[in-house]
Every structure is written in C-alpha cells, then in structure tokens.
Amino acid sequence: MIEGWAAIYIFLLAGFTGYEVISRVPVILHTPLMSGSNFIHGIVLVGAMVALGHATTLGQQLMGFIAVLLAAGNAVGGYVVTERMLEMFKSSKGGKG
Amino acid sequence: MVILIQASYFLAAVLFILGLKQMSSPVTARRGILWSGVGMVLATLVTFLDPSLHGVSNYLLMVVAIILGGGYAWQKGRTVAMVDMPQMIALFNGMGGGAAGAIAAVELFGAINQSQAIPGAGVSLVLSSDVAIVAIVGAFIGTLSFSGSLVAWAKLDGRFRRTSLVPQQHWVNLGLLVLVIYLGVKLFDTDSTLLVLLFFLLVLLLGVFVTTPVGGADMPVAISLFNALTGLAVGLEGYVLDNAAMIIAGTVVGSAGTLLTQLMAKAMNRSVWNVLFGGFGQSGGAKEAS
C-alpha cells in the first residue's frame, strides 16, 4: 500500500511535523513531554499484535508474544506516568491561581 | 473492515499529533495526553479486527501478553514515587524499543525460514531489498534503545554504578559498532539463523556498553535520545509492516525527540556529543579509581 517514494514523503513530512509541534516548549515541560512522546511510540503495540497474529511457527509466536508484552508495557506505562506528572503540574498551578 | 481499520489508524495519527501539540503548552497539556490515549485505545481495538491475523492461539497469546505487560506497567506506574519518574520513562521507553526489535526479529527469522527452502536465496529476496534494509536498520536502532534504556533505568535506580565494563571502553564500543555494521550488511543476503542471532546479541551488548559511561546527571538527555531512537525504530518497522499509523507516530516522535534532546542538553549547558562521549579517554582513569 505505502511504497517507495510515498513512504519517503511520509517520513519527511512527519519529521517536520514532529519538529514544528514542539518547537516552542517551555523548559518545565521537557520531562512530561519526553514521557508523552514515549507514550506515543507505544503505537508499536499495533505492529506487535500484527506480527504475533501472522506467526506460524513456535519461534515466531514466542518473539511476537515478547513484542506484544513489551509494547503493552510501553503504551500503558507511558500513559500512566505522563498522566501522573501532568496531574501534579496542574494541581500546583491550580494552587497558585 | 479494512476501511474501518485504515480510518481508525488515520484518526489515531491525527490525535497523536494534536495531542503532542497540546502537551507542549502548560495550559492544554492534560488534554493532550487524554487525546493521545483515545487514539491509542482506538488503534489497539481495531487491530483485533484485522482480517490478516489468524490462529486462535495467536489471539489468546495477544490478550495474555497485553494483560500481563499492561498490568505490570499500570501497577508499576501507579505506585512508583514521583522522584523515580525518570527511570520509569527509561524503562517503558526501553520496552518500546525492545518491541520494535522483536517485531524485526519476527520478520527476519520468518524471511530466513522461507529463504532456506529456496537455494541461493537470502533475506532480501524474500522481503524485497527496501523492506530488508529498513527492517535491519530498525532492528539495530530498536534493540540498541532497548538495552541502552535498561542500563539507564538500572543506573538511575541505583542498581548499577559502574562507569566502564572493559578497559578503553570507548574504543571497544567503536570496534563493536564497526562489527555490528558489518554483520548488518551481511544480514541483507543471509539465510543463516545464527548470523541474525549473533547480530541481535551484539547490538544488545553495544547498547549496554554505550550507556554505561554516561553520568547520572546526564542521564535524562540520554533517555530522551533513546526515546527519539525508539520512535525512529517504530517508524521504520511501520514501513516493514505497511502500517501508516506506526510510520507517522514513530517518525513524529523520532524528530520531536531529537529536538527535545537538543533542548534538554542546551538547558543543562551540555552538548549531546559531550553527554555520550564526555568520558572519552577517561575510562582508564575511572577503572583505576574503582
């Protein structure tokens, strides 16, 4: 579906998007944003599920299982940690206002 | 069904980009993570409907793995103390890199299985050249990020305190890197399972060796760099699996993470180069001291 040059254009545009989207981030948000982007690459879970779903041999099933296990940890853990950080952030702001 | 899945992936990609945008401002940050979360749940759920997936046992393994991995991370993320957050990010980021590496392993081992039935055929013939290259590069970056992040986690958690593992650490690292690149090029045409196994093991070792000399205060910058690398690996494996959501989300994190790494290094008056190779030539002295 996505072939050759089309993929290269997607890489290019997504690359610029990522750069532009966070170009004006304040220092205080550096760590939460690192955590947030850590959550977003948790989308690897989708690929891990597909890899496991295509498995035909025991070896592939084992590697696929590990992939889904790790990816689910990335997605869920990334969300929980980011949420907790931003929660703290909001309450301290709310206290001031 | 396929249209529903593609539309959901498209929506998820939009939500990720908007979510990241909102997370870069203090006022909208909490809404940002919520939107991204909705995208993630949506993408995960529709993937179960993918008609190319097969095998009851595969589905069963999928659900078990999600419950085990997700449950562990939920528990860990909920209970850990606030000051220990940076190593949690390192740990979860490492898991993502490991997942990208494992996906590449599934594809590469699968291709080798098929190529062994055809005399003279290798990985590149089964996967086609472009996919083979991208899969190998993604395997390298993802696996490196996996072991590197785990070392970063162990160092921040106080489980691992050494600054070098072998004498002349940086030169050993350089030699190992050259060897890994050589093996990676060989992988392109190989039909040997052993070679792939050796490649993955050496990349794991390289990640450990590269991260070991990084000092504690510099670690957040290193973690941010690994975060960007994992994003890139996810984007590359997205190309291998023909998954646009993975390509977009992975590449966006790859470039945003690279910028963030530079910003963090600048905020600490350090250069990224300095963080990674700051101990250059000092490994001998560090060994004597220990």
UniProtKB/TrEMBL annotation, chain A:
PANTHER family: NAD(P) TRANSHYDROGENASE, PROTON-TRANSLOCATING NAD(P)(+) TRANSHYDROGENASE. It is an enzyme of class 7 (translocase). It comes from Aestuariirhabdus litorea. InterPro entries: NADP_transhyd_a_C. One of its GO terms (cellular component) is plasma membrane. It catalyses: NAD(+) + NADPH + H(+)(in) = NADH + NADP(+) + H(+)(out). This is proton-translocating NAD(P)(+) transhydrogenase. One of its GO terms (molecular function) is NADP binding. Its EC number is 7.1.1.1. The chain crosses the membrane at residues 6-27, 39-56, 62-81. Residues 8-90 form the NAD(P) transhydrogenase alpha subunit C-terminal domain. The keyword Transmembrane applies. Keywords: Cell inner membrane, Cell membrane, Membrane, NAD, NADP, Translocase, Transmembrane, Transmembrane helix. It is a multi-pass membrane protein. GO terms for biological process: NADPH regeneration. The transhydrogenation between NADH and NADP is coupled to respiration and ATP hydrolysis and functions as a proton pump across the membrane. It is found in: Cell inner membrane. Pfam families: PNTB_4TM.
